[in-house]
Amino acid sequence: MQLRNSASRYGLISMVLHWGVALAVFGLFALGLWMVSLDYYDPWRKAGPDLHKSIGLVLMGAMLLRLLWRFVSPPPPAPANHGALTRLAAKLGHLALYLGLFAVMIAGYLISTADGAGIPVFGLFEVPALLSNLPDQADVAGEVHFYLAWGLVIFAGLHALAALKHHFIDRDATLIRMLGRKA
To answer: What pLDDT digit, counting tens, does each position of 6-56 carry?
Structure first.
């Protein structure tokens, strides 16, 4: 399988980044829902958020890499059967997913650095607090993070449903290309 995207399909790097980000987003969402239900004495009360933050920061790096990769190896053009409205919806949908992801991660960063402390990443290194001590930073960023996370997961679900619609109803190559098969 080729590493770069071609005119007919996505390359291995794009596919790994796409599916890895999808897995991380849904995993982080589930972890986030679970960890807010933990009581004070649960041993995961500290470990859960630490894991969530570490994965979130790795996801931020993956998203920056993914954004760079789109310029290095542009995605294949839309299938020929997609009309102008479908192409526009796809572009706007992908833009919304990218912006939503970055907004969720920035809000999470602002929650975690509100007290001025950096964020350790799996105990290997620490991401410094560049912006902290804003009025109600943790509370405001927490609300934003919560609602954006829900919106992102719902929108990602709609994105998946659209891919399934293209595959099963339209019978076009939209989904097949992201699975590494030729259109």
So the answer is: 998 999 999 999 999 999 999 999 999 999 999 999 999 999 999 999 999
3-state SS record for the chain:
CCCCCCCCCCCHHHHHHHHHHHHHHHHHHHHHHHHCCCCCCCCHHHHHHHHHHHHHHHHHHHHHHHHHHHHHCCCCCCCCCCCHHHHHHHHHHHHHHHHHHHHHHHHHHHHHCCCCCCEEECCCEEECCCCCCCCCHHHHHHHHHHHHHHHHHHHHHHHHHHHHHHHHCCCCCHHHHHCCCCC
Q: Measure the CA–CA gap between 96 and 49, rounded to whole angstroms.
A: 26
Q: Note the pLDDT of residue 37.
A: 94
pLDDT at 183: 65
Q: List the domains of the chain with CATH numbers.
A: 12-178 (1.20.950)
Q: What CA–CA distance (Å, rounded) separates 100 from 5? A: 24
pLDDT beyond 80 at 148: yes
Spatial distance between the Cα atoms of 72 and 19, rounded to a whole number of angstroms: 19
Q: Which residues contact 116 (CB under 8 A, 6 or more apart)?
A: 129, 132, 133
